[in-house]
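Standup notes
- HV: blocked on the assembly model, inputs below
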Amino acid sequence: MITEKDIAFFAEKSKQIMTELSKDMVGQKEVVEQTVIAMIAGGNVLLEGVPGVGKTRLVRSVGKTFSLPFSRIQFTPDLMPADVTGTNIIERDENGQNRLKFQKGPIFSNIILADEINRATPKTQSALLEAMQEHTVTAGGRTYSLDEPFFVLATQNPIEQDGTYPLPEAQMDRFMFKLVVEFPGIEELTEIVTMTQATMEERAEAVLTGGDLLAMREAAKEILVIDDVLNYAMLLVTATHPEIKTSSEFAKKNIRFGASPRAGQALITAGKVRALMDGRFNVSYDDINALAYPVLRHRVKPSFNAITEKITVDDIIEKLIEETSKKIKKR
Amino acid sequence: MKLNKLFASFKRKLVLEGVLRSFFPALAAAGISAFVFSLVYHILLEKTPVAIMAVICGGIFAVTFLTVFFARYFPTMKKIASRVDGIGLKERASTMLDNSENSSSMASMQREDAVIHIKKAAAKDMKIYFSRKMAVLCAISVFMAALMLSLPHDILSFAEPKDENELKQEQIIKDMIEELREEVKNSQLEEELKDKIDEIIDKLEEDIEKTDSTLEQVGKIEEAKKEISDLLEKELTKNKIGEALQKYELTKALGLAISSGDTEKVSLVLDGLEIMLKQNKELVKELAETVKKALEESGVEAGDELYDALYNFAESLEKIDIQGTEFEKELGEIFDKAEEEINAALEKQKIIESEKEKLEDIMSGAKEELLENKEGEEGTPQTGEGGKEPGEGEEGQGEQPGGNQPGGDQPGGNQPGGDKPGGDKPGDGEGGDKGTDGGDYSGEDDRTEGIYDPISGKVSYGEVFAVYYAEYLKAIEKGNVPEYLQEIMDIYFAELN
């Protein structure tokens, strides 16, 4: 049963996390906040941005802040699944006998930075998928559990798409959020350059443990969601499906296919965390609206019409929020 | 903390908003109803009964207001919570309301947090919303209703606008009707009589409204006048009874006095009869029998006040003991009582006679005015309007009854003297003049005005008859038609009609 002490602990820790991360990240407040939300909620994050905007730095800072073991996997086209999960190797024991021993791969960590995930082959990508979804690794016929908490923070470059293997929709769906790390503004850029002249090392310090994180996750699960807000979230998800009769003309025209039920789960789970970080004990419409972008961005596929008319996914999400809000007001 | 108390100020604001948002559609509905109501009456060319309309539209307003308010805008707890959340509480209030029965620690903490924030929030931060479209619709409907009400009730009439004479004609009739009603209302007639006369007046009003023809209207007035006269004449039993009594020597003087309606004369005659009976006791029974016989012959029925007074008088005389010692005393009492009753009856009949004259005067006056107005409408006669002048060889006119001027053909030229009704009519020899006087009212003008169809060359029968009948009526008023002929003439015209 959650107590006020748990709530106070949550509030204190989330504040500390944000403070520590802001030491290494200039600007990008929303990205940082949403990354933290995803981690507390137990979801994986896909970070997209041009090189040098701080994606890796963010992940490394997160690893330091949470004082959790951190692994970085640089995905390349020649990366094999075994390079990720580990493999059996032959080893001579004390008796001089040869035996097989499983050598754990870099995935056996708490925080995984999967850098440029779209550069690896689908086979290697799928190895990561099992870990992301099941928090287990199967190798040599044996299944190995991964330590909790376990997160995958993957990155991908929106340019240099030649020779890459775009993540299929099924795999994209396993990321709770897709966050776009924008190029910083001139002031932020100035600050970044100034800051990194002194040192390139992350200055964030550990403020909580994995156990703390799990405790925060449990606390967030208790946050209340009223039926109206829940219904709103589900309406938003169904609004992304053009094949449904009740979908709007806009959706029918500009969406090829919509979000899976995982989107609904993500909205509510992340919404609870966001509410608690905001000092509330209930999820609000604002929480759903704010989280709609990272949750739906990678799950909604725009149609050819949207592409030709240069309607971005974020534009589509904005329009769907507007239409769904009007629908609930009319009720 | 109880929710009602917590939300009290917000609820008040939402009630105010609900009232405002219900007011506009209710007013719009009432405005539209008033517009439609008034439009219907305009189509019917009737004046809009404003009082009835106000009641109906007021009812529509009230029903619409209450229905809209309670069905749509009544602030339930959920609505209040939702609106409170809208001022920055981020669904705290709604969550608190939804979990009011939830006893978990999270729900308790949430409630505490919600209460703190609700208390910090102010009702003044809650905006009042109302539909501008509805406000505009409301304004338009009220404006349209006011416009429709302000228009004359005959604005939609396709008839030509009425000229001065037509308006005067309407006014004459309206004044006559009002005067008749007022006279009846203020009279001392019995209620039953008043009601009957009122019915005749109502019918007259209805009949007059159905026609624009002056002559037909005059005819209707004459009919009504006759009806009222006959009605009141029936009550004037003194004439019949008086005439019957005059046939007998013994009661002749009494009959004359009663016929005259002069109560003093009656008293004198009765005194004379009393003295005579005192001196000639044997005549008591004869007098009683004579009175009874005369009453029977008069045709008046029992129940009439005068009849009953005389009958009681006769009965009392029959019962008196001629040989008794109290004969003179009893006789005196009988005569006193008879005098009282007979004179009371005569007084009432005087009132009826007076009212009859007054009503007849009103109606006659109105007829005169109408006919004068019609003459005035025709303006200068024979002014070459469309070749309608007489003697221009138009066939239709040659066939008009005006070719035989009513005055000239009336027996008024041969009126015997002294038989003129009411004794007020002009004497002999004037009838002939009157015959030509009838020609002063040039029937030709009437014939040419509005009745001649230049295409067929014919004149409508109704119009011809009206002219003919009107001339007859005028002749009666001028005393050109002897009484004994009037009945025959009435039958004649009735058959023509």
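- HV (later): unblocked. The interface with chain B takes residues 1-4, 7, 222-224, 226-229, 278-287 of chain A (CB under 8 Å). Chain A has a mean pLDDT of 88.
- Next: hand off to the docking folks.
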